[in-house]
């Protein structure tokens, strides 16, 4: 794998990471590497995660979805590298997911999603097998969440909303699933989902008002809960 050490913003419009083969280990390696340089992506420079390999090799359906989601939400240029006349309906449905594509083409926010928790490994671990699993970023329509299951089997994944820097404490958020294209109620303080092995969950969260009164503890992360006057409360 060939990688560039300088950021795209420092040197020009793009810096490229080379995807050698259309396999899950290669995808995980690139996601891991780019998790440390997401700040290099904005309107004036993009980290190029290399050509999309969806439709090539033996990637599973879930791996293809993860490939498309990670590349699009990290704001990589999206170059399709397969024979479109030979792809199946499942591959076509991935490449034409307009809700995911809309995040990549957001006219207001150009930056990449970034990890807010690594998950399997301690935060900031460089691990090509199990890259960061919990990511978020801004969009013109709300906060984008990506939950990536790097295990070979399905796993329950969960996070507190305020782990993302773009979520406000004391608020509830409506949930839009960007793969099922459904509105899935509201989240208060946390989200828990089962994600297939090598699969992904992509959500769009929108502020839906104050969280319900009377919740205990008074904050989702009780040891960080403070009143407006700065004193500790709850717990």
What does the model show?
The structure is a single chain. The chain is of the alpha+beta class and 235 residues long. It has one domain (24-210): Immunoglobulin-like, CATH 2.60.40. It contains five helices and ten strands, in the order αβαβαααββββββββ. The chain has helices at 8-11, 24-34, 61-73, 89-95, 98-104; strands at 14-16, 46-48, 114-117, 134-139, 142-148, 155-160, 171-177, 182-188, 190-195, 200-210. The strands form three sheets. The chain has a six-stranded antiparallel sheet with strand order 3-4-5-10-7-8. A two-stranded parallel ribbon has the order 1-2. Helix 3 (61-73) runs parallel beside helix 5. The longest helix is centred in the N-terminal third of the chain and has 13 residues, at 61-73.
List the helices and strands and how they pair.
Layout: H1 8-11, E1 14-16, H2 24-34, E2 46-48, H3 61-73, H4 89-95, H5 98-104, E3 114-117, E4 134-139, E5 142-148, E6 155-160, E7 171-177, E8 182-188, E9 190-195, E10 200-210
Helix pairs in contact: 3-4, 3-5
Organism: Thanatephorus cucumeris (strain AG1-IB / isolate 7/3/14) (Lettuce bottom rot fungus)
Catalytic activity: Hydrolysis of terminal, non-reducing alpha-D-galactose residues in alpha-D-galactosides, including galactose oligosaccharides, galactomannans and galactolipids
Enzyme class: hydrolase
Entry keywords:
single chain, 235 residues, alpha+beta, Immunoglobulin-like, 6-stranded antiparallel β-sheet, two-stranded parallel sheet, 5 helices, globular, disordered N terminus, alpha-galactosidase activity, glycosidase, Melibiase_C, Glyco_hydro_b
């Amino acid at each position: 794998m060939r990688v560039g050490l300088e950021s795209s913003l420092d040197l020009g419009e793009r810096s490229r990471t080379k995807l050698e083969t259309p396999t899950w280990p290669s995808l995980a390696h690139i996601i891991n590497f780019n998790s440390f340089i997401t700040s290099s992506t904005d309107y004036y420079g993009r980290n190029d995660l290399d050509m999309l390999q969806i439709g090539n090799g033996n990637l599973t359906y879930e791996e293809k979805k993860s490939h498309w989601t990670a590349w699009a939400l990290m704001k990589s240029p999206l170059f399709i590298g397969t024979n479109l006349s030979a792809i199946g309906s499942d591959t076509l449905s991935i490449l034409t997911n307009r809700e995911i594509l809309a995040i990549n083409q957001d006219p207001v926010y150009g930056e990449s999603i970034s990890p807010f928790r690594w998950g399997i490994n301690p935060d900031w671990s460089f691990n090509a097998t199990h890259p960061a699993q919990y990511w978020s970023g801004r969009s013109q329509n709300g906060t984008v969440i990506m939950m990536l299951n790097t295990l070979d089997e399905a796993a329950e994944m969960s996070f507190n909303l305020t782990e993302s820097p773009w979520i406000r404490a004391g608020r509830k958020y409506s949930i839009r699933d960007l793969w099922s294209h459904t509105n899935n109620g509201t989240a208060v303080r946390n989200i828990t989902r089962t994600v297939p092995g090598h699969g992904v969950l992509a959500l769009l969260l929108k502020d839906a008002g104050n969280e319900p009164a009377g919740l205990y503890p008074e904050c989702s992360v009780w040891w960080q809960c403070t009143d407006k006057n700065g004193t500790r409360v709850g717990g």
